[in-house]
Amino acid sequence: MTGPRRPEHGFETRAIHAGQPPDPATGAVSTPIYQTSTFAQEAVGEHRGYEYSRSANPTRTALEQCLASLEGARHGFAFASGLAATDAVLRTLRPGDHVVIPSDAYGGTWRLVHDVFAPMGMQFDAVDLDDPAALAAAWQPTTRLVWVESPTNPLLAIVDIAAVAKYAHDREARCVVDNTFATPYLQRPLELGADAVVHSTTKYLGGHSDVVGGFVAVLDDELAASIGFLQNVVGAVPAPLDCWLVLRGVKTLAVRMDRHCANARAIVELLDAHPGVDRVLWPGRPGHRGHEIACRQMRDFGGMVSCTLRGGEAAAVAVAAATRVFTLAESLGAVESLIEHPARMTHLSVAGSTNAVDPALLRLSVGIETADDLVADLRAALDSVS
Ligand code: PLP
Predict the structure, then answer these.
(1) Can you give the pLDDT at residue 1?
(2) DSSP character for 276?
């Protein structure tokens, strides 16, 4: 069996219960935080499935089962950060293998490929994956993996996941999707044909800006064996408390995402109408490139909105510093709204490269506060520099 799992229960039910039965020892309804490094054995080699917490820990198992269920995966592996999860997937490749990544991949993913894996012999090309001709032009006999983000960070480009996965499979390569921006509530890449899904659980899955974590959801057993091996051998695993924080966050993912999407809509309406704003980037806008694909492959369009300002970099930097409800900070996907300037903050590592982002760009992570407060806050900041 290699297809996505057909779940017995709905998404919200699985978010609350999958992998989390009441604790068999005590009946505790909230999964215990098994804050232990090691586990007593009855006799040498006789244990209850847990020996040492780098290899496995019950709180981590609960998280892995829950997130695997939400993505429709057969296997799930939790990591200490999103980049540790990305690193594990890339380590399954060999020197000389060629990888295609998005031209506006998350800056940290670009840096990992460019500064760590490429010097060790990985070949790669960064292309606009929303352009099938660009993927075809970059393809090489040694291409083993296409790394997809959709929507991308920070331009919110939409990639046709089903088409890219098919293109890769027809050429015996794998397709892995960083689903951090969409979450499994809005988009399930494995159902669209991808082989694996990566998350920074730091973002929407955790949802409260209180934990850093990562996750890999895998369909096929062979890739899962490699990722599981690397998780234990390299040891970039999350602590039990961090697993518990993500588990707790995920319970409310569906209701949070509905509000993130609704609030993003209200912010997009403001930006569309404001004279100081040049381009508005949000997959839910009918004019957005890839909007029709987003309608097909996403349930809703997410809480991330980007825009460029007519006043250029100076205006963007000034607006980022002028909001009061939106906090000026890196990261995204939590209950509180954040604003940032990608060229000087999250995407500084790609400055000067072909991947550099427009300095007039602002990225908004629209939170779940009162929509009117968010709109008023951003309007006041835009008015102050226009
Ligand atoms: N993928 C995306 C799309 C991200 O935005 C981020 C972080 O911002 C990462 C991966 C890396 O995650 P982490 O910061 O948890 O390592």
Answers:
(1) 44
(2) T
User: Could you tell me if 229 and 278 lie in one domain?
Assistant: no
Evaluate whether residue 348 is within a structural domain: yes
Ligand 1: which of 176, 203, 332, 365 to mutate, most ligand atoms within 8 Å of CB? Answer: 203
In angstroms, the CA 169 to CA 164 distance is 9
User: Which range of residues forms the domain containing residue 358?
Assistant: 254-385
> Are 153 and 140 found together in one domain?
yes
In tens, the pLDDT along 98-127 reads 999 998 888 899 999 999 999 999 999 999
Asked if residue 81 has its Cβ within 6 Å of ligand 1, the reply is yes
Q: What number is the average pLDDT over the span 224-246?
A: 98
* Per-residue confidence band for 350, with pLDDT thresholds at 50, 70 and 90: low
Ligand 1, atom 12, residue with closest C-alpha: 82
Instruction: Write the DSSP string, 298-338.
Output: -SS--SEEEEEETTHHHHHHHHHHH-SSSEE-S---SSS-E
Is the same domain home to 243 and 367? no
Does the structure show a pLDDT above 60 at 242?
Answer: yes
Task: Identify whether 120 is part of a domain.
Answer: yes
